[in-house]
């Protein structure tokens, strides 16, 4: 059971009537929605909204401390001490600063990230054909996820800018309804989009690693770790595989995207700053501040997001095809 019905059923070169939609065949009995239909894609987008919006909101305290470690390492020297300083200065309620823009921003990001990943993956697979789609499946995952994240970050950028400003700038309004209008008055629309390029630098490699690593990790787990075929696993067992693969993918994602994440945090805090200027000022060591906190946060987030996303697909009985297998050649099919 994998998130997107990804190239898990790349063996379906024999599914002529589906015209390249070879992932849906193995789940035909459970399918209540046609694979690739507008309803199917909207429900995948809904799963993405829930998975990203809920999980990012749940870890707002850790994200807050991580951001403050990046922009003020002298005061916030570590995770534990960072929590202590935050509670001492702002009280327990201070740990929830920025929850509203986090929920809204990452819900929108999840809608585009997962929904468009499904769209691009299906279209690229149809263009390539079954054999090439299987042979080049890692590249297909990378290309589809990169395109999806490009649009997802445009949707995220305004709320991410507000969130970082609320969490890291002393004396700034602590609510979305007060912070967003002030940013607009003082800096105009650019205040909400000046961080979009660093978001791409952070988000596109992160998402490419996240989707490709997850897809291939699930393949490896079923081939080498799980003691029985996927078709014989219960839904609970398949969701457990999803969670483990998601956590493994999340660790790699955190490392790949952390330098850009540090730049985004500082950039959105400071007026008139540029991504290149922030990068030069932070230096090599500075961009890795808060990495351990980010590994914990992103590993947990990624695992939970895949779990929630797959659970939504289970609930709505969407197609959940098997792991990727080589399609049969025309000669063997004869």
TrEMBL record:
GO terms for biological process: mitochondrial phosphate ion transmembrane transport. This is Solute carrier family 25 member 3. Keywords: Membrane, Mitochondrion, Mitochondrion inner membrane, Repeat, Transit peptide, Transmembrane, Transmembrane helix, Transport. One of its GO terms (cellular component) is mitochondrial inner membrane. Solcar repeats lie at residues 39-123, 136-220, 237-315. Signal peptide: none annotated. GO terms for molecular function: phosphate transmembrane transporter activity. It comes from Lynx canadensis (Canada lynx).
């Amino acid at each position: 059971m994998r998130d997107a019905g990804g190239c898990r059923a790349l063996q379906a070169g024999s599914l002529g009537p589906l015209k390249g939609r070879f992932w849906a065949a193995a789940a035909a009995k459970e399918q209540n929605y046609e694979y690739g239909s507008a309803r199917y894609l909207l429900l995948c987008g809904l799963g993405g909204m829930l998975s990203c919006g809920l999980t990012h909101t749940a870890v707002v305290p850790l994200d807050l401390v991580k951001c403050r470690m990046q922009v003020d390492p002298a005061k916030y020297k570590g995770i534990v001490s960072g929590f202590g300083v935050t509670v001492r200065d702002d009280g327990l309620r201070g740990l929830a600063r920025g929850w509203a823009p986090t929920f809204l921003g990452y819900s929108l990001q999840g809608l585009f990230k997962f929904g468009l990943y499904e769209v691009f993956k299906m279209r690229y697979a149809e263009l390539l054909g079954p054999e090439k789609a299987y042979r080049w499946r890692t590249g297909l995952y990378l290309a589809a996820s990169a395109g999806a994240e490009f649009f997802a970050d445009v949707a995220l950028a305004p709320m991410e800018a507000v969130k970082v400003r609320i969490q890291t700038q002393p004396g700034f309004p602590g609510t979305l309804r007060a912070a967003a209008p002030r940013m607009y008055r003082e800096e105009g629309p650019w205040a909400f989009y000046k961080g979009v390029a660093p978001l791409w630098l952070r988000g596109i490699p992160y998402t490419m690693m996240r989707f490709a690593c997850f897809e291939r990790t699930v393949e490896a787990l079923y081939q080498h770790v799980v003691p029985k075929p996927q078709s014989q696993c219960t839904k609970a067992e398949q969701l457990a595989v999803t969670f483990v693969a998601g956590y493994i993918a999340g660790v790699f994602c955190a490392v790949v995207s952390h330098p850009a994440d540090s730049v985004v945090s500082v950039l959105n805090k400071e007026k008139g700053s540029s991504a290149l200027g922030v990068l030069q000022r932070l230096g090599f060591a500075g961009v890795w501040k808060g990495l351990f906190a980010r590994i914990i946060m992103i590993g947990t987030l990624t695992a939970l997001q895949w779990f929630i996303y797959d659970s939504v697909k289970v609930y709505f009985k969407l197609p959940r095809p098997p792991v990727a297998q080589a399609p049969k050649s025309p000669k063997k099919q004869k």
